[in-house]
Amino acid sequence: MKLLIVEDEVRLRDRIAEGIAWEEHGIELIGAVGTGEEALRLVEKIGADIVLTDIQMPVMSGLELARLLQQHHRHIKMIMLTGHDEFDYARESIEYGVSKYVLKPASNDRILESVLDAASKRRLELEEKHQYDLLKERWRTHLPRLHESFYRNWLTGNYASWELDKRGEEVHLKLPDQLYIPVILDIDPLNEDDTRFLPSDRSLLLFSLNGVAKERLAETSAFIVQETDGTTIVLFMGVLDENRMDFYQRVNHAVTDVLTMTKDSLKITASAGIGPIVDAKELLPDAYLKAKMALQTRIVYGHNIAITFHENPSAANKWTSLGDMEKQLETSFELGDEQQAKEVAGQLIRSAFSTGSVPEVREFLIHISGMLSRFIHARQWLLTEVTGDDYTYFESLNQLLTREQIQEWMIRVIGRICLFVNESRKNSTKQSVTDILKLIDTRLHEDISLYRISEILYMNSSYLSRLFKEEMGMSFTDYVLERRMERAKALLVQGAKVYEAAEQVGFRHVNYFSKAFHKYWGMKPGDLNK
């Protein structure tokens, strides 16, 4: 405990400072000064726990000193030395944090007793503050879990509408009126022939999906919590005056990004159920249930998809038919068949506009843009690179105002996708043939065959044979013979023996090699050594 003595009477000040063995009682005397101004400077420089001061001093009284210290150092215990005639005056000092007053003349024992009593109180305060800080830190550490518990209970309808704000305040959450969209993310069922994961790995995969969502949505106004069954709940929030279609489009884009990243990073697919937009806190549990219902319909729509809740069955049936056409469109993309893809796109647009409902057309746009984005991202292509100037419409679909604009946009994007597919196939073909040529050159000394090459490259031998002939203009067998004969001729010219040349180009029998060489070059191999 740090003690500061403030007394203008020199003899009394020295007696208190030097006549008491402060250190033996755990008290550190940081100074003994004669004025309030000196005391303030010393407290600011060193700090103090206890100040023992005379109440009557020139320039600045002990009471004024107490008042000033109370403003910035409320923890300091003030002890006043006062005369009998100043007793009533001293009582007023209580409002300035003075905890004790000692009547003059006071013995050293009386002063020591007062200081030790103040020190005891200060130690108790420090201990209580330490305990409070510990509790506060524990509260801060557990607050994220408390938030998760609150959101989980809110979404699942465990809170009555009247207690929502109260429960939120208990965990330091404010619930302003705003727009909400609940989304549920879940990994898709694994194929039975997928041996990478065991059923027991599901919880780990769900945890990883939750991590992907938190990473991709870190800059988004959303709260993410894992449900008790392991699925991830994302509660998107928007301001009340935000355009609802813009808000919904933003959510759909963010969810699609999470699904794409899940497939890229975890090598599994996930799907999402997107609930309706609500603008009242008490409506959120119902919207959450609808998000769950939307997710359940992936059994109809398939996997790796963000599914919007639809209120009426007819709309759901319509989306089912759209899903069939989308599969046809993806097949056309895989084949690089631009004409067929454009025909399917026309069917999709006619179906989307069949009801004349603007909201359904907008949902179709959001849905189809997500499908096109997933197809592009699945091939490790950049959306901006593939779509070019049309990328701006992916960012703001509201720019597409007419049926003609929508159709022209889709046709352009489809054409670009098919172009990239075909270019990629050409590059892949060239690379495959290059790999074959390298293998042939490095294995001429072996009994090399088309079947063996196809095994090494994990390719179908019939497809490899057709591919090779299309690119090279000759059969695989003819090319291998040509390379062997050229290599053999070069070896013989360099002075190799006939049997050595035969071995190095894959012929086990010299006689067979000589006949093949003579047939190809019109001379015997031995003639080159003469």
From TrEMBL:
Signal peptide positions (record) = none
Q: What CDD domains does the entry give?
A: REC_YesN-like
Q: Which PROSITE patterns match?
A: HTH_ARAC_FAMILY_2, RESPONSE_REGULATORY
Q: Name one Pfam family in it.
A: Response_reg
Q: Which GO terms describe its biological process?
A: phosphorelay signal transduction system
Q: Where in the cell is it found?
A: Cytoplasm
Sites bearing 4-aspartylphosphate, chain numbering: D54
GO CC terms, sorted: cytoplasm
Please report the stretch or stretches of sequence annotated as the HTH araC/xylS-type domain: 434-530
The alphabetical list of record keywords is: Cytoplasm, DNA-binding, Phosphoprotein, Transcription, Transcription regulation, Two-component regulatory system
Q: Name one GO molecular function term.
A: sequence-specific DNA binding
| Annotated ranges, domain Response regulatory | 2-119
Record's protein name? Two-component system response regulator
Phylogenetic classification of the source organism = Bacteria, Bacillati, Bacillota, Bacilli, Bacillales
